[in-house]
Specification:
By secondary structure, this protein is α+β, with helices and mostly antiparallel strands. The chain has three helices and five strands.
Length: 115
């Protein structure tokens, strides 16, 4: 079975040059990305994860810039990662963390993968 989260995190970390994981690291770097599966379907031979990709940075501008770069990296996933057949980003929006007050932007992304 394809682990879409692991593949997306590895590809985003490589493309963006920042840490990427499925959880906020306990020791937060200046910039990082988190990827969560928020839904999507699965059938024999096809996984369609819906992902929340969150780009964290010290300033609103830096978080937005990282989000724009993440959008391009997500759209390039089908060319870069063999099990990923299709990638789509439907929105980017400011989503500051209410607890830490850290700046972040969230992208809603959808993948089609071969499991």
């Amino acid at each position: 079975m394809t682990d879409a989260l692991a593949l997306a995190c590895a590809a985003l970390s490589s493309a963006l040059g920042v840490p990427c994981s499925t959880v906020v690291p306990p020791e937060r770097p200046a910039e990082f990305v988190t990827v969560e599966r928020t839904g999507g379907g699965y059938s024999v031979g096809r996984d369609e994860p819906a992902l929340a990709v969150q780009c964290w940075a010290a300033t609103e501008h830096a978080a937005y810039t990282l989000a724009l770069l993440a959008r391009e990296a997500i759209l390039a996933l089908p060319e870069a990662v063999a099990p990923i057949c299709r990638a789509q980003v439907t929105s980017i929006y400011r989503f500051p963390d209410p607890d830490s007050r850290a700046e972040r932007y969230q992208l809603d992304a959808y993948l089609v993968c071969r499991p």
